[in-house]
Amino acid sequence: MLIVMNHNAGKKQIEAVSKAIEKMGYTAAPIPGGERTAIGVLGNKGYVDDSNIRDLPGVQEVIHVSKPYKLVSRDFHPKGTVVKISGVEIGEGRRPVIIAGPCAVENEEQILKAARAVKAAGADMLRGGAFKPRTGPHTFQGLKEEGLKLLALASKETGLPVVTEVMSPDNVGLVASYADVLQVGARNMQNFDLLRELGTIRKPVLLKRGLSATLEEFLAAAEYILAGGNGAVILCERGIRTFETATRNTLDLSVVPLIKELSHLPITVDPSHATGRRSLVPSMAKAALVAGAHGVLLEVHPEPEKALSDGAQSLTLQGFARLMDDIKRLMPFLGFPA
Ligand code: PEP
Ligand code: MN
Asked: Could you tell me if 6 and 142 lie in one domain?
């Protein structure tokens, strides 16, 4: 439930409504806006009887929200959220952000080569996994803390902020001490303990859509992080399982404009994991930007044929530079300088 206050409602009236909500056993979450304050009601399982609230002084309207997410919803927060990451801004009204780098950090030479090349081509942020959620246990599982150190080194040299995955709640502190943005992978989208832990930190989170998650489940997962107190969440569509096996996943591009209608959070697209094929990545990256994505996440490797993971979908350094030329040409069409 969302309580919209009159534009001239004062602090006392807002406090009285919050108290009434708490008295009913729920949590009140005031959301100050430019024009007026709204108060979100959290913790209810079903319909809330609003008879104790709707006639209180200063209350203009009571909106019943039946979705499993509220804080994430545009109803609660009409203005688009812009997430700030050491100099990079991602979200509504901002130039789309290009995040690029290898699937996994493999060694110093590989990550430095990749970082220097993506920086030279115009990327805004560096990606690279140190903790890798692999389908089978016998494949490369990532360099773990050593990988985080190499990412920090590449970041220091290039000035690019770093996005890297965290797989377990126990490692959130460790990963947060090295990374600028913590990624939740598709396989962990509903790892609720991990989401809760990420709600307690003060670093942005990039949340990827689960392999078989509906849009509602995706937004409800983001709600866990916001409900914990961390509002800096960036969503990422990375393809979903469908009957189609010609591509690794099916890129659900229509969620980009739909998420922009339903939520205030930034939405990015990962065409690398969505398609699984290098040849399809540039088209889908450009399509994502035209669809209104606030950024794209791209796997790039200096020698994809030797990559320890996801080589088939990784762009070469030259391929990435070519795509960046195209993206720069696209920018004026999107309303930004080239
Ligand atoms: C990744 O970004 O390297 C990754 C493992 O992606 P996803 O969780 O989307 O499969
Ligand atoms: Mn990968």
From this structure: no
Q: Does residue 297 share a domain with residue 151?
A: yes
Taken as a whole, the chain contains a residue count of: 338
Give the three-class secondary structure for 139. Answer: coil
CB 289 within 8 A of CB 327: yes
Indicate which atom in ligand 1 lies nearest the CA of residue 133.
Answer: 5
Q: Which ligand is nearest to the CA of 301?
A: 2
Residue range(s) defining the domain that contains residue 6: 2-63
Q: What are the contacts of 323-329 at 24+ separation with CB within 8 A?
A: 323/281, 323/282, 323/285, 323/286, 323/298, 324/98, 324/121, 324/122, 324/123, 326/282, 326/286, 327/96, 327/98, 327/122, 327/285, 327/286, 327/289, 328/122
The pair of structure tokens assigned to 169 is: 């709640």
Do 210 and 307 fall within a single domain? yes
Q: Whose CA is nearest to atom 9 of ligand 1?
A: 186
Pocket of ligand 1 (CB under 6 A): 103, 129, 133, 185-187, 208, 238, 270, 273
**Beta partners for residue 88, in sequence order:** 85
What is the residue with the minimal CA distance to atom 8 of ligand 1? 185
86 and 54 in a single domain? The answer is no
Are residues 51 and 88 both part of a single domain?
Answer: no
Identify whether residues 176 and 54 lie together within a single domain: no
pTM across the whole model:
0.88
End-to-end distance of the chain based on CA atoms, in angstroms? 43
Give residue-wise pLDDT tens across range 70-114.
Answer: 899 998 889 999 999 999 999 999 999 999 999 999 999 999 999
β-pair partners for 250: 240
